[in-house]
Amino acid sequence: MTQNQFEKKDFNNPEFLVQMIARGSFIDRGCPPKVYQIDVYSLRLNWYALNGFLESWCCNTRACYEKEEDWLAHKAEMDGKREAWERKILDSIGLGDAQTGFHIVQVTSEIFSVTFMQEISNGEK
To answer: Which domain holds residue 42?
Structure first.
């Protein structure tokens, strides 16, 4: 969702809204012979999208479960929630096809950063 679309929506509505605050990109030639394009996005999430992030956070540890299979089931459930949340973030900024090369981190409160790195040349001629 673009910033203009975001501003037309009610920030308090229970729908997944993401505002792009800033975007930048650069070409990285620091690993010759490979060349990468790095795209960085600064995002603001509404309360509903932020709750999705918090609800996908696995706070439990193996020690919370008597059986290994119970722990693994819980971990798989939380991993699935996080993957679904990440997919919504990527879809909202037009990176829905990205399978690898991205990293999403919480910067502070409802502000997140997304970094997407893709190889654009492997140096072969």
So the answer is: 3-121
